[in-house]
Amino acid sequence: MTHHLKKRILLVDGDNRVRTLLRNYLEKENFIVDEAASGIQAIREYYVHGNFDLIVLDYELPDMSGLEICKYVKDSGDVPVVILSARAEEGDRIEGFQAGADDYVVKPFSPREVLLRIQSIVARMTGTHISHVNDSSSNEILISGILIQPSARRIRVQGNEIHLTPKEYDLLYFLATNPEKVFSREELLREVWKWPVKETCDGRTVDTHIKRLREKLTFHSAEGNEFIQTLWGHGYMFRCLEQSLS
Asked: pTM for the complete prediction?
């Protein structure tokens, strides 16, 4: 999908006031907005249309947890998910990221902030924030048979494009551009997720994303599990199977 086409957003929230507020802001920015007031309705919309560029998802829906829907979406595709929640505790945010959320916004929220977060994620997915997309070949990175095209935020393994979520791409890019260097889960949370230094970190969020990255890499390469090494008690490292970084 090119950046000239309108982006389609699915708003899932049991509160009609929340949906109306966000719809007004999104439509002013030329987004196409569909709505769902329950988990069942959200799954039906996702299954029938299947062409959403992003989903805004309430943590607590009338009929089920938003985390269940988030996991369903992530297991079946790569659509970015922004979770809205009245739960502000660290543990709740961690559960959201473990479910695959790309962002987590606490209620009450600023609709302008939510809009900016959505625009940022959509831009990263489509590469619309890059002003010279046609020059992407000039800064490509080839390491261990993985081709990274930063300008387009694309990853190719053995010629096949790997579809990653924004955070999966950020994580792989960070590790691949710092090869043979071990990073603890806390360091990755702060470097990739921009987790506040003073907050306690739960590394399970990193573990979940590493697991998904390995699964996607392995699908296209027999060496997929070897790219990102686990050093027990220390963290993760991107291994140069071929010592070639260009």
From this structure: 0.57
